[in-house]
Amino acid sequence: MSRAVARAALLHMLPDYLASAGVSPDSIFRQAGMSLDDVASAAVVSRSQIHHALALSARCVGIAEVGLLLGRSADPAKLGPIGKVLATARGATAEACLQAQIDLMPTMQSHVSIALLKRDTEMIWTHRLVGDDETAWLLHEGAVAFNVGMLRNLMGADWAPEHVSFPHACKGLRRSYEDHFRAPVSFGDQGEARIHMARSTLSRPLQRASHPDRGRDVGPASTGPVTTIRRGASDIESAVERMIDATLADRPVTLQMAARILGLSPRTLQRRLDDNGRPFEQLLDDRRRALAMSWLKDGGTSVTGVAMRLGYSDVAHFNRAFRRWEGRSPMGFRRASKALA
Question: What b/e string do you get for 293-322 counting C-beta neighbours within 10 Å, with b at 16 or more?
Answer without folding.
Answer: bebbeeeeeebeebbbbbbbeebeebbebb
